[in-house]
Amino acid sequence: MRIITLNSARAVSRFNLALESLEEARGKSNGIRGKVAAAVADIDLSSYALSPVLTDDCGYNRLPLEPRAALERLVDPELAKELGSDKHADLLEFIAERNLDPMVDLQSRTDVVHAEIDAMMKSLHSDFLIERNALLVTASPCINCSRYIYEFMPDLQALFFTGAYRCEDGVDFLGRMMPDLKIHGVDVNGGITLLEDIEDYRTWCEVQ
Is the pTM higher than 0.85? Predict the structure, then answer.
């Protein structure tokens, strides 16, 4: 585990811009269990200088909205058992906050769009990205996203996340399958820590 110091004003400015853009994009998410944003960027690892990351470049997780959802499904006790009481309560709160009509507006489905996938797709249409060798996420990738990252971002050199996903499988997978990938945790004050193995990741998670 090693603290990374950004030694140039340009690197600090670009990194802060990226974090701000991620937070703005995260605000667009309608995820229930967690709101996540991600962005693909170019990075020079000799200075840790990022290419500019704007809010419109960021992907975010979201639930598809589809008409004709059944109200009785939402209040069915079996749904609470299936989702868990906390998540079921979050779902009902989500509906109430947005003044949705469950009969016509909302159906939770399994094909949720994940932020990392959304960001990778958006990066394909970028006019200025060249290397696409950095990925920034507000939560460490899940195992499914990590598999997509491994498959579709073979030139990835640096991964940054500002929070930990509830399972460590994704980070463990990337660490094993992409041994040259530099994995970083970013704390609430913007401090960057290079996590050199899964034990470093676990230690970082404990202090967040």
Answer: no
